Amino acid sequence: MGKFNKPRNDAPIRVPPTDKGTIGQQKASASESKNRKIILISVCAVAAVLLISIIVGIWFFFGSPSDDGLILNNVMVSGINLGGMTRAEAKEALHKATDHTYTELDMVVELPDATLTFSPSQTGAKLDVDAVVKAAYEYGRTGSRDEREAIREASLTSTHHIALLNYLNLNLEYIKAELDGYGVNFNSTYVPSSVDFDIEVPVLDAANEKFNKNAPCQVMTLTIGAPGRYLNMEEVYNQVLDAYSFNKFLVKAEMAEAETIPEPLDLEALYEQFRVDPVDAYLDIETNEVIPEIYGYDFDLEKAMLQMELAQYGDTLEIPFRYLLPEMEGTTLSDMLFRDVLGAYETKHTTNENRNNNLRLACAAINGKILSAGETFDFNTVVGQRTAAKGYKEADAYSSGETVKTLGGGICQVSSTLYYCTLIADLQIVNRSPHSYVSSYMPMGMDATVSWGGPHFTFKNSTNYPIRIEAKVEDGYVKIQLIGTDEKDYYVEMEYEVIGSESPETIYREYEPDNADGYKDGDVITTAYKGYTVRTYKLKYDKETKELISREEDRVSRYKKRDKVVAKVNEPTEPPTEAPEPTEPKPTEPKPTEPKPTEPKPTEPEVTTPPATDPPATTPPATDPPAAESGEESSGEGNA
User: Fold this and answer.
1) Which helix (H) or strand (E) holds 38?
2) Of 47, 117, 426, 588, which is least surrounded by CB within 10 A?
3) Under a CB-based contact definition with an 8 Å cutoff, are residues 73 and 156 in contact?
4) Coil, strand or helix at 254
């Protein structure tokens, strides 16, 4: 065709016919087409500008100004720091660290009572190294530019761990099921320890009509509590997953166990709480009635403690109670009370009715008095002050060395007779004083003087049973007995010896012939008493063999001497008479003669030994041995 190619079809080109109007229309159409092209070009230009802006924006926000292709600093995977490594270096490091762990090592979980083992074949553990390295590499390469810059900044000082659970292919359901199965068997419910009784406490008071010493005792049931244990298996499960994440294969289930231990039962406290001490039957002193015993109540503490030591959690122990018998039951006490005469003595009194009246009053005051075991008896306290209102009369008594009339005079014979009974009964003497001078109605060293305000006579019931005093004046004697329960295997006798003496002197006291007392020359004003120092002994004899068991010194008593006082009455002197003138022969004056006074021989007080009761008191000869050894000594004055 030459310079131009031939058209593809050979169809003739048809030129439409034109006229004048048609030509105008064509010109207008050409102008509109030109305008459209201009608009299209403008739109395309604007779109290009917008696209370029978007690309620049995306690059600005998501692009990295300088990407070195290395994993960020301090990115940790399975305990390995991959920071600064390339992806190839990171893969090599992980393969080296994990190729022989996840697929070869068992996961061992140590629990409180067992150890669980998970093998790789059971858990399917296998690390996808490529995926882990990709995750490590992409850390800090996603997000906005500001976010990425912040991550990069933080990686310089802090560590970021890539969790491996999503890359290990673990059979998590299997692991959790195994752990939960163990937890079901391990966990237990807390049960506190407890105490229970099968019946009420039986009546223990023998005075109660419901008392029956053969009634069954209680049985105390002790339940040894069980600890409540709870193992947080969710916590253990998380510990196992953490171990897998850090390429560790030993888990000790620590801090996952919670246990509540029951308080141990305090047997000693229970014993003190429920123990009842027995109470012996006793005599009511006021009513003179025997009060029945009260049985004790307890359990065998030593045996119960042994059972407790052998018991396990959850065990039940049965501890039987038992009666504790009192040492003295009422029936036994009734048979034993006041069955024996512990000591008895009687002393002869004078014919002085006032004095005998006083003796009767004093005996009546102490008669029937009951002393409980361990009780102390004071003569003055029981008898009380001797007054006329009580009926006491004046009789001889010692005061300042002289014999004077005083209310209640003579009652020392009652206290002395009682003292002798306490010696024979071998009771404890608390306070006793001898008279100033030897008493005629008692063996020397065995009297006890009293006076209101002192001296006192006091003794203690040192037996295990009550003692009753029986005292009376009868047939010319003061008779006293101590009635109680004699548990001794011996009886007592008393004896004394004089270990010193002092003779009285005679003293003359001058009086005028018309003296108010009417003394005549030679009258005895005060009788003489010889002074003595006496030691008493307590002799104990075997009741069966009558053999002497012991001879013990009891005490030393000192009695004063009292000088004899004799009245010396001066003779009257007659005045001279006037005589007539003497005539021869010269009268002679006869020489007057005076009667020679006679000095009475001082008399010694008679030491009397009243008839003794069983056993008899012995009175050895009063000898004058060498000087007395030191010992108890006392002297006093009182209602003789």
Assistant:
1) helix 20-62
2) 588
3) yes
4) coil
Rounded to whole angstroms, the Cα distance separating 576 from 291 reads 93
Domain boundary assignment for the chain: 36-65, 75-186, 194-227+262-333, 337-569
Burial of 332 (0-12, 13-18, 19+ CB in 10 A): middle
- Output the CA–CA distances (angstroms, integers) from residue 451 to 89, 210, 377, 400, 457, in the order listed: 123, 53, 15, 13, 9
User: Which of 213, 217, 369 has the alpha carbon at shortest distance from 292?
Assistant: 213
Lookup: tokens for 166? 């999503």
CA end-to-end span of the chain, whole Å? 193
Does residue 597 have a pLDDT over 60? no
pLDDT at 427 over 70: yes
518 contacts 576 by C-beta, under 8 angstroms: no
- Predicted structure pTM score: 0.53
Gap between the Cα atoms of 566 and 76, Å rounded: 136
Q: What are phi and psi of 388, to 5 degrees?
A: -65, -30
The token duo for 339 is 């069955």
- pLDDT score, position 322: 95
Q: Are 313 and 231 within 8 A, CB to CB?
A: no
Could you tell me if 225 and 195 are in contact, meaning their C-beta atoms sit under 8 angstroms apart? no
Q: How far apart are CA 502 and CA 559, in angstroms?
A: 9
DSSP codes, 587-620: P-PPPP--PPPP-PPPPPPP---PPPPSSPP---
Contacts of the segment 503-506: beta carbons below 8 A, 24+ positions apart: 503/530, 503/531, 503/561, 503/602, 504/528, 504/529, 504/530, 504/531, 504/561, 504/562, 504/563, 504/564, 504/602, 505/563, 505/564, 505/602, 506/563, 506/564, 506/565, 506/566, 506/599, 506/600, 506/602
Stretch 355-364: mean pLDDT: 98
Specify the amino acid at residue 378.
D
Give yes or no for a contact between 397 and 640, defined as CB atoms under 8 angstroms apart: yes
Helices (H), 275-411: 301-310, 330-336, 353-366, 379-383
As a whole number of angstroms, the distance between CA 271 and CA 276 comes to 9
Average per-residue pLDDT for the chain: 84
Angstrom distance (rounded) from CA 172 to CA 162:
19
- Where residue 55 falls (left for φ over 0; alpha for ψ -120 to 50; beta otherwise) is alpha
Strands 467-474 and 490-502: unpaired
Alpha helices in 205-293 (DSSP H): 233-245, 267-274
At 472, list the tokens. Answer: 């009376």
Please write the tens of the pLDDT for every residue from 562-573: 999 999 998 876
Nearest to 192, CA basis, from 270, 265, 262, 258:
262
Q: What is the CA radius of gyration of the chain?
A: 65
Residue of 360, 348, 416 whose CA lies nearest to 557: 416
The reported pLDDT for the residue numbered 594 is 40
Query: If 0-12 CB within 10 Å is exposed, 13-18 middle and 19+ buried, where does residue 106 land?
Result: middle
Taking the C-alpha atoms of residue 68 and residue 267, their distance in angstroms, rounded to an integer, is 78
**What would the pLDDT profile of 260-274 be if each residue is shown by its tens digit?**
888 999 999 999 999
247 pLDDT higher than 60: yes
Other Cβ atoms closer than 10 A to 601: 9
Q: What are the CA-CA distances from residue 367 to residues 190, 478, 596 (Å)?
A: 72, 12, 56
User: Which residue, among 537, 555, 543, 559, has the nearest Cα to 607 in the 3D structure?
Assistant: 559
230/225 Cα distance (integer angstroms): 16
